[in-house]
Amino acid sequence: MISIENHNVVKTLNQLLQGQYMGIHSYEEFIKNLDDSSPLRNNFITIQKDLKHHSDLLSERIQELKGTPATSEGVVGKIELYISQIFDHSNSEKEILKHAIKGENLYGIKMTEKLVRDKLDEKSLNLVDRILDKQREHVDYLKSELH
């Protein structure tokens, strides 16, 4: 049986996990839209691998807390992804970079920071901090490619 406290931590971690899935699927779209010869392509594949690794870590933590990990980005994530695919169909590398930066910054970092505030146990918070550090590295890299 899962405690009330753990239930709330699991709920928060699952929201973060859904965000990771959203990121994985966004990078899938970016990679599809990048030319095979683009130097960005391999770096985007690496970032996507990081997101998959983060989702594995979050899933493991959720299971340690006796919770059930989410298996997709959820309904809201699917809708947001669908809308972004309709409106964001630019294939220029600069536009793809801008969308990736916006996604990492807005959905990845800022929403995560807001979501976890005062809601996690120490071990879960340490995990999320490591994930956020990696996402900040992604943003720094993406911005360096943009300029």
Structural account:
The mean pLDDT is 90. By secondary structure, the chain is mostly helical. 27% of the residues are buried. α1 packs antiparallel against α2 (39-64) and α1 runs parallel beside α3. It has helices at residues 4-33, 39-64, 74-87, 93-116, 122-146. The chain has a single domain, classed as Up-down Bundle (Ferritin). The chain is elongated. It holds the Pfam family DUF2383.
Number of domains: 1
Q: Please estimate the helix content.
A: over 70%
The ordered H/E elements are HHHHH
CATH first level: Mainly Alpha
Gross CATH architecture:
Up-down Bundle
How many strand segments?
0
Please tell me how large the radius of gyration is: 16 Å
Compute the average pLDDT: 90
Tally of separate helices: 5
The assigned structural class equals: mainly alpha
* Tertiary shape: elongated
Distance between the termini: 52 Å
Question: Biggest β-sheet: count, sense, barrel?
Answer: none
What are the segments in which pLDDT stays under 50 over at least 5 consecutive residues?
Answer: none
